[in-house]
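Preliminary data (for renewal application), cytidine-5'-diphosphate complex.
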Amino acid sequence: MNDLTPTREQRTAALEGMGCKRKRVEDIRFTQGRGNYVDDVKLPGMLHGDFVRSPHPHARVKKIDDSEALKVPGVLAVITAETLKTVNLAWMPTLAGDVQMVLADGKVLFQNQEVAFVVATDRYAADDGINKVIVEYEPLPVLVDPFKAMDADAPVLREDLAGKTSGAHGPRKHHNHIFEWTVGDKEMTDAAFKKAEVTIKEMISYHRTHPSPLETCQCVCSFDKIKGELTIYGTFQAPHVIRTVVSLIAKLPEQKIHVIAPDIGGGFGNKVGAYPGYICAAVASIVTGKPVKWVEDRIENLTATSFARDYHMTTEIAATKEGKVTGLRVHVLADHGAFDACADPSKWPAGFFNIVTGSYDFPVAHLAVDGIYTNKAPGGVAYRCSFRVTEAAYCIERAMDILAQKLNMDPAELRLKNFIKPEQFPYHSALGWEYDSGDYHTAMKKMMESTDYTALRKEQAEKRAAFKRGETREIMGLGVSFFTEIVGAGPSKNCDILGIAMFDSCEIRMHPTGAGIARMGTKSQGQGHETTWAQIIATEIGIPADNIMVEEGNTDTAPYGLGTYGSRSTPVAGAAIAMAARKIKAKAQMIAAYKLEVHEDDLEFDIDGFRVKGLPEKYMSMKDICWAAYNSVPPGMEPGLEAVSYYDPPNMTYPFGAYLCVMDIDVDTGVYKVRRFYALDDCGTRINPMIIEGQVHGGLTEAFAIAMGQEIRYDDAGNVVTGSFMDFFMPTAVETPHWETDFTVTPSPHHPIGAKGVGESPNVGGVPAFSNAVNDAFSFLGSTHIQMPHDFWRNWKAAKELGAVA
Ligand code: CDP
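Predicted structure:
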């Protein structure tokens, strides 16, 4: 060894593997405006499609007259449900086991529903065309309030389901009922409530909102009549699933469908499902023989593609006088809109909402969810959350604060008293999950120490006294939130989509010069997979991350996978990547043993190559092994160095975190100031701390938006009144608070590299932290629970109703 020989630290650093704050490689093209998004796809002879949409939330469609539209220069065709019936595509199956109209078939069921698809030579002509389509409607009574959906005299929405007493998830109780889903032990839970010294009960609503990614949903469909092949470029979070669904519903052989998801500008669950635009563009391309592009505008995206939340959760906790929880009972009224198009694994009609026991050791619990139809847009996607987990976390975190208030206990102390203890892991929850690992007390105490929680409470007490003396008009709130997520769908025993098990995949192919390409079934929408997946491979096989190209989103080249949503990429594909890399490493070890003339067992892996145990100078780098794989493999061994892994995880992963929000609210104006926001996340092994921080910042910003104003609101007549960014709160850097981030590391015991997901965590933990801060502030004026979103007006109204404003 001379002075120029790199040290172990230098060799490790050169790999830019796991734990390194590697800069995002994809940002080189994004920051230079060189991304390749769907709307950048321009094919020769391409046509454009646009929708005629219903102004009515519920109406019979009496007649569609397209004669004037067809006279508009450039308009080539007007597709209606009648056209689609000729190819048996007027209705499409949803991921939740329901069916959904592609184009209005006899009636419309929500405002802005797709009624006809106009195809033209350019977007402007298509738009002129839609204005000339005359649709005759007969308005019907409208159902907006979910609490009235199952009244005896509630309007019948889904006439296609008339007489159907059961659906995909069991019996239906009413013509607007979709399913009832129950989990837990009702008898034991009822008994716990009978014996309880203290109980709380509150209806906690998580309002309807929308993922609203920067780039809306869009596609280009191109049918080659000669080859009988359909190529679809689209904003797809799960390209392989889209290929299978298209094959099943369009009856096209799957090998003749090519789905390509190019760069995607944010998904947040919005780009998981199949939308009428995809079907209409595909049909239009098959009919015209030309490529057809469909690009949603912002209003269409907000009002017609998948919404999120809309859960109304009546929540009860039983406890002892000392604050030990003894039972949890939750009933949810889930407003699914006009069709049940929830994007959940097939067997889970309410997603993983049964994580609602949260981070607490509830001995018994019972949950019932009723899904219902209303005259609202369909959907119910995991907007920065893993399948209804954010609703569950909000429910339990608000309820724990309400219990603390009733017991006159500090909310942090109440949580510490009820946490699942480290020695209880793996922990079996009363509602059926096996939590893999956690150390909640350490995380909570770190949060309390880092923020000087005790001093903040003291300051709050002083401020409250000053308010009473009339010296200030500001009230101060401390929002504590401690969440446990469940991410990584999922084990095939639990999770499938349309019968396809939710595994994920990775294929790695090493080239002779020590570089390689890796392809996965996942699809990044901004999460930085091209950067982090290469880091896992770098650490596993000792090749620099810069030498590994990551490619996702092309169903012809990537191995089959179930896509990216619900923080599942790291728990599932991340594991597949490590497993594929380990297969490469195992073959590399055999090649190195042959070249170094020793037995495989005499070799040990050493950062970037193999070394003979006890003879450190006998070493072969992975780079040299790659070369050898193509010219001098051991006799009988196939040349080349590549591997594929399909990973079916044994369990989900359970990230967690402790958050604190410090807020001041002016009672006279309702204006709030987020003074501090501290977020401690534990996502197990951290692949790229910088990307994690970015994920946390983004998720917290969305949590801030949702808790403090972002809402899809309908008026009593069923009109969407928040259909553009003029009314739908989309925070900019100006409103967004400053985020303080922190972490602990509790690896997942079953994941090959110990990593858990993180993308959704800040949204799951952030929303209750904001809402608890507002509610904590107002609790001093005598309130128990104020529903979200907590915008200025609602804060002022609350202050007025509580008598703080004249
Ligand atoms: O499925 P999705 O990519 O949305 O979520 P994720 O698995 O939580 O990953 C989001 C990003 O954070 C990816 O680039 C991951 O590689 C990164 N990450 C990380 O660096 N370390 C973790 N323990 C978890 C995620």
